[in-house]
Specification:
The complex is a heterodimer of chains A (107) and B (142).
Chain A (H helix, E strand, L loop, with lengths): L3 E6 L2 H7 L3 E6 L5 H11 L9 E4 L2 E2 L11 E5 L31
Chain B lengths: L8 E4 L5 H8 L6 E8 L3 E2 L2 E10 L1 H18 L4 E7 L1 E4 L3 E9 L2 H18 L2 E7 L2 E5 L3
Parallel strand pairs in B: 1-5
Antiparallel strand pairs in B: 2-7, 3-4, 4-6, 4-8, 5-7, 8-9
Helix pairs in contact in B: 2-3
Classes of the chains: A alpha+beta (107), B alpha+beta (142).
Chain lengths: 107, 142
């Protein structure tokens, strides 16, 4: 089996720490995403400890994924999130509900 | 037959015009258009934000945004949603994202709008760096 050629693209903190946006590299067959991350952390130890989930060809994947020739891989840092609660925050205190309009609109 | 407007779903470096999103989702069958603006706030953990700098994996971000609109179409077949997300520098008070949902009735329009913003936060590879008066920091979601 021949080596696989992988397109690596870097974003956000990973890009800043590596100091570049992309690489094209060849790896031996059977290389996983985790293997590539290990080689990057060897080159750039400040990457150690970053959290990410990988994508392959623009779909989320797992670090154990074995890569195919031509795959595009990104180590995706947690997305920007925000601190909004995940459940709707409706007022439960009746004094906070404006009752003037409740029940008026029957659609 | 209701004429379906073309889907609006994109990333932009320019200020977002909410009217464009409303026009993209509203049909004559609608009794409600719910619009959400996610805006940049000045205070973040007691530091003063100068602006946010948004970075994205653009091809995947647009793909995921389209997938979320597909989910809306399945869950709420009679509603339409639109998403526009800013990239690059977004100043305090400006919208980094605007979502609009057109619906026959208001209840589902709130539900769908909430659904879209929550899914965007979970799935879409966009990151923000907070630039403070005294430094900067990438923000990672929880």
């Amino acid at each position: 089996m021949s080596d696989v050629r992988i397109e690596l693209r870097y974003f956000a903190r990973v890009r800043e720490l590596l100091g570049r946006r992309a690489d094209t590299r060849t790896f031996p067959p059977g290389t996983t995403i985790a293997d590539i991350w290990a080689s990057l952390t060897e080159e750039c130890p400040s990457l150690v400890g970053l959290t990410w989930k990988p994508s392959v060809n623009q779909e989320y994947a797992t670090p154990e994924t074995v890569l195919q020739d031509g795959d595009e891989v990104v180590f995706i840092p947690p997305v920007s999130g925000g601190t909004g609660s995940s459940a709707p925050d409706f007022p439960t205190d009746p004094s906070r509900i404006d009752t003037r309009f409740v029940g008026r609109d029957k659609r | 037959m209701t004429v379906q407007p073309p889907r609006l779903c994109r990333l932009t470096h320019d200020p977002i015009d909410a009217n464009e999103l409303i026009a993209a989702v509203q049909t004559v069958a609608d009794g409600a258009v719910c619009v959400f603006h996610g805006v940049v706030r000045e205070d973040s953990r007691n530091r003063k934000v100068r602006f946010l700098d948004y970075d994205a994996y653009p091809e995947m971000a647009e793909r995921k945004m389209h997938a979320i609109l597909d989910e809306v179409a399945v869950r709420w077949p009679d509603q339409r949603a639109a998403i526009v997300h800013r990239l690059g520098i977004v100043n305090v008070g400006e919208a980094s994202i605007v979502i609009a949902v057109g619906s026959p009735h208001r209840g589902e329009s709130f539900d769908a709008c909430r659904y879209v913003i929550d899914r965007v936060k979970q799935e879409v590879p966009i990151w923000k760096k907070e630039v403070f008066t005294d430094g900067e920091e990438w923000i990672e979601g929880s």
